[in-house]
Amino acid sequence: MMGGGGKPFGDSVFAGHAAAGAAAISSSTVAVYPLDTVKTLLQLSAAGSNQKMGLNQVVDRLMAVSGPAGLYSGIGWSILGKLPGLGARFGAYELLTAFYKDGKEDNYVSYSEAMLAGIVAGAVESVLSTPFELLKLRNQVGSVKLMKAADPANITKETFPLLSKLLPGYVPDIRVWNSTVNLLSNLSPKHPDIMGALKQHPWMLTGSGKPPLPSDVQGPSRVIALEGWGALWRGLRPGITRDCVFGGMFFSTWQFIHTAILTWRAVNMNPQPRKLEEAGPVSPFASSLAAGFSGIVAAAASHTFDTAKSRSECTVIPKVWAWPHFK
Questions:
Q1: In a 10 Å sphere around its CB, with 0-12 CB exposed, 13-18 middle and 19+ buried, how is residue 299 labelled?
Q2: C-alpha distances in angstroms, 185 versus 56, 177, 275, 306?
């Protein structure tokens, strides 16, 4: 196809398709994002606790802390991740199916070929979208956590100099530090300044020896400073498994339904077409129904891996815990 100026694929056509795709992804994300937020909080509510919170408890907690705006916490990261992720998913699928069709008399793609192409497309999507999903999840978790009263920045830097390097902007809870010092005060004192000595150890950032909460490590700068660049791809393995299962089930189910619709249409045609594709295109409404049902099947098959990915991304692992001699 030639576009304006004689350039292949035409700049105006490509720009129009890109703009339409971006608008579709953004609008669909805005429409369903509150459901994604509630789903994520439900997945994480049982992690590390003996009693899982129900739907009403999660929603009430969210509304009490952040209000309706909390339903859209992290939506910017979600859109930024879906734009390259979905583009890569469908782009990889189209390239692979074009390879399968090459040399065939018709343009038929078998169910196994559609599944294999969907698996590869899902893996590509996961690699591109995982960093944005981690940042999105951290913001969603922050929507149900009460904000702490911030101390003056200069006091934080003077009393906790290590924080400015590992976790900029984080305000430690002085009560936790005092509790730790009180517990250690029963031991034989061997250091004139116990609290001052503890502040020099990276694993005592919070004063209790526990890592900071995910809601305290939200932005890219905080994640990279405290956990390293590799943390942006935390949960990649369950993420790849989830997206491979989703992509394979989605595209194979859609191909099955699409073929069934064309076959049913061809049977009722007189004369019957020689090729299945000659039965005519599927209506947009039928395609939407087929895609919706395929999405339900794929989501049900991959949901367990989605839960594993969410819980993995919710885990904060400071890089300095493995490097005791961090400077």
A1: middle
A2: 44, 12, 84, 45
CA distance 137 to 128: 16
Residue 265 pLDDT more than 90?
Answer: no
Euclidean distance between CA atoms 69 and 129, whole angstroms: 24
166 and 223 Cβ atoms separated by less than 8 Å: no
Estimate the crossing angle of helix 111-142 against helix 11-45, to 10 degrees: 60
20: Cβ–Cβ under 8 A, 6 or more apart, which residues?
none
Cβ 92 vs Cβ 121: under 8 Å: yes
| Helix/strand number for the chain, H first, E second | 11, 0
- Convert 202-218 to b/e letters by CB count within 10 Å (16 or more is b): bebbbbeeebbebbbbb
Report whether CATH 1.50.40.10 matches the domain 12-145+231-313. Answer: yes
Nearest CA-CA partner of 235 in 137, 322, 115: 137
Cis bond before residue 271 (omega within 30° of 0)? yes
Q: What are the extents of the domains in the chain?
A: 12-145+231-313, 153-212
What are the structure tokens assigned to 316, written together? Answer: 């904060």
Whether residue 141 contacts residue 47, with contact meaning beta carbons closer than 8 Å, is answered with: no
Give me Rg for the CA atoms of the chain.
Answer: 26
Residue found under tokens 């009430």 = 60
Judged by DSSP in three states, 174 sits in helix
CB atoms inside a 10 Å sphere around CB 176 = 14
At 177, is the secondary structure helix, strand, or coil? helix
Residue 9 has pLDDT above 80, yes or no: no
Q: Are 53 and 38 in contact (CB under 8 A)?
A: no
Q: What is the pTM of this model?
A: 0.81
Tens digits of residue pLDDT in 94-147: 999 999 988 777 778 889 999 999 999 999 999 999 999 999 999 999 888 866
